[in-house]
Design goal:
The chain is of the alpha+beta class. Helices cover about 35% and strands about 15% of the residues. The radius of gyration is 30 Å and the shape is rod-shaped. It comes from Aquipseudomonas ullengensis. This is MYND finger.
Length: about 80
């Protein structure tokens, strides 16, 4: 019985070692430094929050689209 368990353990270890050596080495994944999130602004017309880089600005107010920029501030302005 001991011989059978020994051979099963030996074969399992050999298969595990073979798979590990056959697989290409992957570089350790380093945690990428996260960039600061883009500042969000609120549309003066509809109140939707959008990234500042995508927003349109007029008179110190931010808008989500050209149509809302043309309409001006809406009821969501507080």
């Amino acid at each position: 019985m001991f011989r059978l368990l020994f051979w099963i353990a030996l074969i399992t270890a050999a298969v595990w070692l073979w798979r590990r050596l056959k697989r290409p080495a992957t570089p350790a994944q380093k945690a990428a430094p996260q960039d600061d999130p883009a500042p969000m602004v609120r549309c003066a017309q509809c109140g939707v929050h959008i990234p500042q880089l995508q927003a349109l600005s007029a008179d110190n107010r931010w808008y989500c689209s050209q149509a809302h920029l043309q309409q001006g501030p809406g009821n969501s302005e507080r």
